Amino acid sequence: NGTTMPSDLMTLSLTRRTTTPANIDAVELRGIQTSDRDALATAYLAAYPPGVAATSLNDARQEMDDTFTGEFGALRHDLTRVATFEDRPVGAILVVGKSIWDPQLHGPFIIDLFVHPDVRGMGVGRALLDDAVHACARAGDDTLSLRVGEGTSPAALALYTRAGFQQH
User: Fold this and answer.
1) Exposed, middle or buried by CB within 10 Å (0-12, 13-18, 19+), for 98?
2) Can you count the helices (H) and strands (E) in the chain?
3) Which of 22, 116, 122, 155 has the smallest C-beta neighbourhood within 10 Å, fewest atoms?
4) Residue of higher predicted confidence among 82 and 51
5) Cβ atoms of residues 29 and 81 within 8 Å
């Protein structure tokens, strides 16, 4: 159509970055497991405004299945984390080795970061993001990127900006 939309791509430079991941007593971060699928689908569906990320729990389950099978790129298991509260998965940061939408980008790409509304305001999103940034820096990655869009809350955008992500 000839009109250029402002870019929704954000990148964080990890060069010479030293971070200490946030620690929240009530929340545990761990690696993702396929057995997390249903709980994560529930959190994913609840985390976004109706119809933005998924229209139903079955849609959300399909999104999780597609994530596990690499439809959005190969998961970086050293960077992907699940947040649990009282042993229940309540959020996740899903990171792939390379964006399938942005061939010019090199380095890891956050395909999603979501937190169940029940635990919002506890710092879960910040802990997930900090953990991924710390793991990227430790692994020697130069950058970490993500896209913001229709479902990105003002709180999430503020989180990314505070962490140092810059729009292209």
Assistant:
1) middle
2) 4, 7
3) 155
4) 82
5) yes
Q: Return the minimum-mean-pLDDT range out of 19-23, 46-50, 92-96.
A: 19-23
Mean pLDDT, residues 97-117:
93
Structural tokens at position 157: 């955008």
Which token pair is 35?
Answer: 């057995």
As a whole number of angstroms, the distance between CA 62 and CA 88 comes to 20
Distance from the first to the final alpha carbon of the chain: 21
pLDDT digits (tens, 9 = 90+) for 125-158: 999 999 999 999 999 999 999 999 877 888 889 9
Whether the full predicted model's pTM is greater than 0.85, yes or no, is: yes
Question: What is the model's pLDDT at position 1?
Answer: 39
Q: What are phi and psi of 165, to 5 degrees?
A: -65, 140
- Looking up tokens 């976004």, which residue turns up? 48
Residues 12, 163 contacting (CB under 8 angstroms): yes
* CA 83, chain centre distance (Å): 11
| Integer Cα distance of 77 and 58 in angstroms | 24
